[in-house]
Design a protein that fits this description.
Rossmann fold; alpha/beta; about 45% helix; Arc Repressor Mutant, subunit A
Length: about 700
């Protein structure tokens, strides 16, 4: 035989097909980069103006007025056509500008399009204008680390996910020295304005920079970014100015695609409950959107748990002439019972599987956990203030921290002293798993927030669920329903009359799904029932077909846990986010060109069709509220929680029993499809946004 003529490695590596399929850039990337987002009609005009809109009422706080005097009187501004313009005004609009831009906080799909929109509009009016990108977020501004953003750089990232172009960071500019460093950098670069692309904390940074830079003539504009969806702005009259931040739709779609795949797996393998934790530290917007996208069997909205009232406990306490304060707000124990109820109900219909969605920060909505967080935040802040040393440095291990807390309880015995951490707290806390204790005592993030993403919430609650399911199983209440047709097919080969046996072992012998009686919890008790009903004698074994039926009814609870966060925030943006973020960048330019500062670039009417979108500027200073951070009150933008009276939540509440599918009817899972940026079937807006606009 002739030896096989294997191609040389050099030939393979140089082959055109090899180069094509192993290239860093594939056809999808090329198509994405070449996609041109739509522009709001007003931006087709040559020149724009700003119209002050005092009719949109936004009340400010006394503290904000005191700390932000130069921007507190800003009003909502609408960008409008400028029909008549002088030659001098034209020249002012077309003058060369140097504008800085930075990302701040976690990535969100669409950030590159904000820069693309800003860059395109800047260059449209004057090709000599420069856009300066600060590297690694606020650190780049403080350390004067930057790059000039060019056409080739922008083109490489158009419609692409992440913040890779100039990277991001989480540093807060929260001191005079940092403010001075930031101003020095901007002056040295001759910047007319700075655009801060970030969430609520980043826009808080932006407004304080606007105040600091005002006297230097440097403008600061914020852009609303967060996948959590908790940066929503309404007027005092509840009119929506900013319905959602960019990146939310993409993250929800990316998560939902993964969750949808799990619904397919769950219904195929029929043995797992998939527990999906999605990002959302303070609010449950992503969970609600994913619920609509996938129709998962069980989805928990934290805001509803926090609003929960146990009327039975209230009535019981009233009869005893007492007030039960623990009846207000959900407890971990009660929450686990709600989950068990669904699992048991679905199992009774032959569905010992399912998919559940919980928000990352759901523990903050649980009564006793919220109390722990508040108390521990206060204890840690007080310790840092009194001892002038970091609590976590003084007590590096869990045991050291626990010992310090126990010492606090002993203060109760001292005369005229009261400890924030009492014996009841210590007892409840000691019952929590050690990894959860560690999570509650871990160092807060740079904004003073509890780091819920580091805590395995799903493991905590599912351990409680498994424990209670075992109790229900011992009580004979947790069983898998046997489909009647299956039962008949197994019994037809036996010598027994199926209908007779059914009446003996099932509590519902006439139903489609048959449940073995609660008193039959083992093969031993099953045999005794058969003996008592004279089906078999005491020296006979349980017939094999009946054993098969019993074993099939005996549930084994298995879970798979999943966390969806970083994958979704790094996704390429949806068609909605491509268009939305691009127009936010254009809006930022027009606010700057018209002299605005201390404003957040926003698009009003997002819930309507694209031709109804309106670019506006929202005064950030009027959004500031006092909030506890690391044991101290600070001015920040208030996060937006789910409104339990909103259309979206009311519809979710009405449909969740149907999606639970705890009946003989088939599951109602929905397939959202992959994230795309074009195509006639692609969603143009988030589902919750559409529902709330009805």
């Amino acid at each position: 035989m002739e030896p096989l003529n294997f191609a040389s490695l050099e030939f393979l590596l140089n082959h055109p097909e090899t180069s094509h399929v192993t290239s860093d850039v594939n056809a999808e990337t090329i198509e994405r980069r070449s996609f041109s987002p739509k522009k709001i009609k007003i931006f087709a005009s040559k020149y724009t103006d700003i119209k002050e809109c005092p009719e949109y009422k936004l009340s400010n706080t006394r503290e904000a007025a005191k700390m932000l005097p130069d921007v507190i009187n800003n009003t909502v501004q609408r960008i409008i056509f400028r029909h008549e313009i002088s030659q001098k005004a034209k020249q002012a609009f077309k003058m060369p500008r140097n504008i800085g831009v930075l990302f701040s906080g976690g990535p969100a799909p669409g950030g590159h399009n904000v820069i693309a929109g800003l860059y395109d509009e800047l260059k449209k009016y004057n090709s000599e204008s420069k856009l300066i990108g600060f590297l690694s977020g606020p650190d780049g501004l403080l350390e004067s680390k930057y790059v000039e953003i060019t056409k080739s750089l922008v083109d490489a990232y158009r419609n692409m996910g992440g913040f890779s172009m100039i990277k991001t960071g989480r540093t807060k500019i929260d001191s005079k020295n940092k403010m001075d460093s930031a101003l020095k950098t901007c002056k040295e670069l001759g910047l007319e304005a700075l655009v801060v692309i970030g969430g609520d904390d980043s826009n808080t940074n932006a407004v304080f920079l606007a105040q600091q830079f005002k006297s230097a003539g440097i403008k600061v504009i914020g852009v609303p970014k967060t996948i959590d969806g908790d940066l929503q702005i309404k007027t005092d009259d509840q009119e929506t100015l900013c319905a959602i931040s960019f990146g939310f739709h993409t993250a929800a779609r990316a998560f939902s695609q993964n969750i949808s795949n799990l619904t397919t797996d769950a219904g195929s393998d029929i043995k797992y409950w998939h527990v999906c934790k999605v990002m959302g530290r303070v609010a449950s917007h992503l969970t609600l959107e994913c619920a609509f996208q996938t129709h998962a069997n069980l989805s928990f909205v934290g805001e509803e748990l926090a609003d929960y009232t146990d009327h039975q406990r209230i009535e019981k306490a009233q009869k005893e002439g007492m007030i039960d304060y623990t009846a207000y707000g959900m407890t971990l124990r009660h929450w686990s019972r709600l989950i068990c109820d669904t699992i048991v109900r679905r199992a009774a219909c032959g569905k010992n599987f399912g998919v559940m969605i919980i928000p990352e920060g759901i523990l903050e909505f649980i009564n006793e956990i919220q109390v722990f967080i508040i108390k521990l935040n206060t204890i840690i802040a007080d310790y840092n203030h009194i001892h002038d040393i970091d609590f976590h440095t003084s007590f590096p291990t869990l045991n050291a921290k626990l010992e310090y807390l126990r010492r606090l309880t002993r203060v109760l015995g001292e005369k005229n002293k009261f400890s924030i951490w009492n014996l009841r707290d210590d007892d409840l806390f000691s019952q929590l798993p050690s990894f959860f204790q560690t999570g509650l005592l871990m160092e807060r993030d740079t904004h003073g927030n509890f780091q819920f993403s580091q805590v395995k919430t799903e493991e905590i609650i599912m351990d409680m669920v498994k424990e209670y399911l075992n109790i229900l199983k011992e009580q004979g209440k947790y069983k898998i329903g046997i489909e009647r047709s299956y039962y008949m097919s197994i019994m037809k080969t036996s010598k027994f009359i199926p209908e007779k046996i059914a009446k003996i072992i099932f509590k519902n012998p006439e139903d489609k799904y048959l449940l073995i009686k609660e008193s039959i919890i083992s093969l031993k008790t099953l045999k005794q029932v058969l003996i008592n009903n004279e089906v078999i004698s005491s020296d006979e074994d349980v017939p094999e077909p009946i054993v098969r039926i019993f074993k099939k009814s005996d549930p084994e609870f298995k879970t798979q846990t999943h966390f969806y966060g970083y994958d979704g925030r790094g996704s390429d943006p949806t068609y909605f986010d491509c268009n939305y973020s691009y127009n936010l960048g254009i809006t930022a330019f027009h606010l700057i060109a018209n002299g605005a500062t201390g404003q957040m670039a926003a698009i009003k009417n997002l819930e309507k069709k694209f031709d109804k979108w309106e670019p506006i500027g929202i005064p950030i200073a009027k959004l500031m509220r006092l909030e506890e951070r690391k044991g101290k009150l600070e001015l920040v933008i208030e996060k937006s929680l789910i409104d339990l009276d909103s259309n979206a939540f009311r519809i979710f509440k009405a449909l969740r029993e149907e999606w639970m599918a705890a009946s003989e009817n088939p599951d109602r899972y929905r397939r959202p499809g992959p994230v795309r940026f074009a195509g006639i079937t692609e969603e143009d807006r988030p589902i919750t946004l559409l529902l709330n606009s009805i």
